[in-house]
Amino acid sequence: MMQAEMNIGMLGHVDHGKTTLTKALTGKWTDTHSEEIKRGISIRLGYADAYIYHCPKCDLYSSEAKCPKCGGKPKLARKLSIVDAPGHETLMTTVIAATSILDGVLFLIAANEPCPQPQTTEHLLVLNSTGIKNVIIVQTKIDLVTKEKAMENYKQIKAFLKGTVAENASIIPVSANAGLNMDALLRKINEVMKPQPHDEKAPLRMYVSRSFDVNRPGTSVKDLKGGVLGGSIVQGVLKVGDEIEIKPGIVRKEGGKPTSVVCKAQSLMEETEVLESAKPGGLVAVATTLDPSLTKSDALVGSVVGRKGEVPDPVDTLNVKYALLERADMQNMPLRENEPVVVNVHTCTDVGILVKLSKGVATIKLKKPTVAYKDMYVALSRKIGQRWRLSAWGKVV
Ligand code: GDP
Ligand code: ZN
């Protein structure tokens, strides 16, 4: 059939219904990464494909392969990938670091609370600067309020969005729990979320967000399957049989520097679709000719995949033009030289030291090298109390 055409991120204050709406759109829970939450700041993007069906007879949009009104077989209108991240801290970090992965955003605001809530403000601040233009505001939980309350909340939302990138975004009231107005939301998604034309000639670039060994323990050598990489292609095309290079690559002995690896793409999948070639959209799984022991337990997360010779060498120093994040929930002091920070760029989580701060540019010495590109977004977290908290963000200069 087809690969997901674009990646849609979910934003909004905690408990405003992101996980619930994702479930309604995709049939899957994305909020199942408790291990990841425990680890704190590492990014674990959850991807789930959303199918949008349209029944021409009833002119009705739904997530069901059977028209809810006439019972007939609707047409598959769209296939999109919903990207979610568990927890507030990682969600914000993800949106910043993985901005290049997202093509659009559903911004959720609950109708039963005054708008804005603290994280609503923070998320809009970030969204406003990331350049993501496809935005739909989803007013959630309308089953919990009267019509008058919903209208009042709608006006608050309108006032809150004024002067921002989302000023003219549509506001669609829904209840994912009660199944209210989902047709209107899907219709709007279908209308607004149009994929950007992808430059297929651009050099292949994929950010690795997971890697595994798919073999059961005890598999005999001749039956072993090669290592598998999962990630987002952000430009170019990857075809079965292509030779690829992965950087920084593999750390072969503890404490050593990573070395790049070259291998072949043996097969490609996007969720349940087997593909001959893959382009941007959704979480793409690449089965490679690598020794599976090299890819097990997410060993290659944070690496970048490209064609052989086309991936830039990793760097161990980053210069980031940054801004402090104004946070409602904590006092965020200016950054200090020699302070340790957690650095998130694309799918890479790294630790670094702020060796120099000058004219709004932070020079960060990284513990392990990473592949970075100019203008790429970076999230910086610092230790406040016992936790790493997102504190600043900016762009690689
Ligand atoms: P998240 O933190 O933004 O992912 O929010 P969740 O999806 O986990 O939702 C938080 C709570 O609100 C859960 O108990 C949901 O069942 C409830 N909830 C979400 N959407 C709706 C809705 O449209 N109506 C009602 N009544 N409850 C909702
Ligand atoms: Zn129908």
Describe this structure in words.
The chain has 397 residues and is of the alpha+beta class. The protein folds into 3 domains: 186 residues, Rossmann fold, CATH 3.40.50.300; 103 residues, Elongation Factor Tu (Ef-tu), domain 3 (Beta Barrel), CATH 2.40.30; 82 residues, Elongation Factor Tu (Ef-tu), domain 3 (Beta Barrel). It is built from 6 helices and 22 strands. It is globular and about 65 Å long. About 3% of the residues have low confidence. It binds guanosine-5'-diphosphate and zinc ion. Zinc ion binds next to loops.
Keywords:
397 residues, alpha+beta, Rossmann fold, Elongation Factor Tu (Ef-tu), domain 3, seven-stranded mixed β-sheet, six-stranded antiparallel barrel, 6 helices, globular, binds guanosine-5'-diphosphate, binds zinc ion
